Amino acid sequence: MADECRDVSKLVTTFLLNTCRLPPRLSEDHIQAAWCFCCMATVTVRTCRQDGEDLVIPIITGSVAEFYIEPMLPHVSDIDVMFHHNTVLAIPRGHPPPTQLPAEFHNYVKVAEIIDSHLPGYVYLQARYLLTQSTDDGKYECVEYDGVWYLSNDIDATDVRKIHGPAVSTASNVTWRLSVDFVNCVRCLSWPPQAADWPTRHRNYGWPDSATLDRVVSNGCDVVRVAHRQCRQHEWMGKRQHRLSFSRAEIVLINSWMPVQQIVYHLLRYFMKTERLTDCADNSGSGTLSNYHIKTLMLWACELNAGSWWTENLNLVRICVELLQTLSVWLIDTRCPHYFIYDSNLLGIVDNSFNYISAANKLMSTNEECLSAWLINNYIGQCAQLCPVYISRLFNDVSTIMKLQNVVSEIVCWRLNTSLYNVWLAVAYAEHLIAMQVPHFSLTVRSCVCWMNTLANIDERFSVYYSAVELLHVARIISQNVSNNALLDILAILLRNNVAVRKNVGLLNTSELVELLQKSAVERLTTYRQFEARDFGSVAKIVTTDFEAMYAYKRGDYQRCSQLSTQNVQTLLYARYMPNVLTYPVFIQLLDDDIVSLTALTLIVNPECRDHTIGVRISQLTLSLYLMTQCQLKLHHSVTSLALTFYYIKVAQRRHPPERILDQLTLKLIELKVLLTILH
């Protein structure tokens, strides 16, 4: 029995090591997180003064920023976005007001001192100074406030049901796959005295190392708007108490973990959530167990155990069992020591709605054999359900080690074989977000630079695609006779790599400028397709001239359009996977009236097409067939040529499922056009 238990534990360990991607390839979670960052980074709030704007400075925190592994099962429950305003700053009590600040801060900054409360880690913010930046040397001069007043911890949310601890939550929807928690905080550039012993305390095993320690301390901390659970009903404290947040430090530390440590962290979170021993991770430090308690357990384990404890005779199940038993002791003693603040106990206030002893007993009784069986049934079993039917059915009988090994091998192979395809799906998700939502945001030089730089940091292709979308967006604005100097500044950013075009922008009339912008956009879209074909050509048939063909048709160059489209149809006709061309408003100017009308009809027939996972889209094959047919009709091709086209159309109709409404409508339209021409 012991040998069989070790075999199962080893099998589970091998499975997890082989299915957790290192590092993660492009994923929808990271794309949504970057999108949230850009949305917040481009928010401005008018100040009461006339000399500037209150900017929002965001940072992505939580799971999506901490994990660099990508397991098969979800490991990111939501997107956490902390943000501070560039007009407010916190400093430790007794520290002199700063004379220099990072460039992100405003010319006028309110400074509040961090005042300890009677609860470790919970503080008040007392307004002390107003900083004014000198125009001569850029340094800040301060004026001390009269009287004593404290910053409020009020959270701006019209619906109190959306308030979760210090966060305002937005639910997942057709655009966002994950819900988003926005946390308004006050930035503190200094490491807080409340955690003064953390950088210098003795560490037997050298984690974190000195470089990591220095980086953590140099990032300072934040102060978030939430009172301790026992103070929330107090008339004064409930409205003014704040909590120190070490989210920046946690990101640095968790990203320094070995892969095995990240996998263990994921497994513990998954086990505790599945067994309903945790609620959502609100970092509250009190009440029921949360992901923050698991994070704290892991941070202590990484510091108090040698690296060899994690890696020698590697057994992920054994490690998880030992850590769960440590957590059970904490629960029995109602003692969970805060990782950064020495005298803070995260289990100090017992929540009567949560049975700590019952949870502790359950964790203490979880041995290696028990947890191995649990992971087979509840983790690997769930992974099997993500696979094709022939694999998931194998899991119905895992009565022997050999049968279990067979299932695990099939899942691992499928995981590896679909890796690139999943990245391609994430890229398609990013295309939808950019094309669907970017035109709805205020277009400024600042927002343009932010979007381009952030998207380029994810993947250079997205910056290219974004610039194409914005060029079409500007072209659409200009075609409506809406023009101003700000648009010219934006074009200078979008066209920064094309000096010749930039020089001509100011010399053209409206129609010439619109045509130039459309042409430049098509060139970028073609470059984007070339990136796509280079990186994903092994999992899909991707033609690179679909936008070029669209533009040739729009300009009346039917010979060129026919040549490109015919080549594309022959390449795509029997392809299993291929890209789509989106028909969102920004692309309408490149399409003819028939496609525009059919797009509108599609939205009427199926409003769910507004969903990013469906979208108003047409396959490269359908669009190429449409353009080829239209050009053949305009160039009066022979009946023989049209008969071959009719055959292509019938093949394409069979290859597109009924739910692809725009494809089916388009194919039916050109089918009728070809039939009418042949019959006459």
Describe this structure in a few short sentences.
This protein is 51% helix and 12% strand. By secondary structure, it is of the alpha+beta class.
Describe the structure.
The chain has 680 residues and is α+β, with helices and mostly antiparallel strands. The chain has three domains: 2-370, no CATH class; 421-538, no CATH class; 540-680, no CATH class. It contains 26 helices and 14 strands. It has helices at residues 2-19, 28-41, 63-66, 210-218, 237-240, 247-255, 259-274, 291-304, 307-311, 316-333, 356-364, 368-385, 389-394, 401-417, 419-437, 445-458, 460-479, 485-494, 499-505, 510-536, 546-554, 558-572, 593-605, 620-634, 639-655, 661-679; strands spanning 44-46, 53-61, 78-85, 88-92, 108-116, 122-133, 140-144, 163-164, 167-170, 179-188, 221-224, 242-245, 580-582, 617-619. Strands 1, 2, 3, 4, 5, 6, 7, 8, 9, 10, 11 and 12 form a twelve-stranded mixed sheet that branches. It has a two-stranded antiparallel sheet with strand order 13-14. It is flat. Mean pLDDT is 90; it is low at 46-50 and 280-287.
Q: Biggest sheet, in brief?
A: 12 strands, mixed
- Number of E strands: 14
- What is the number of independent domains? 3
Strand content: 5-15%
Dominant shape: flat
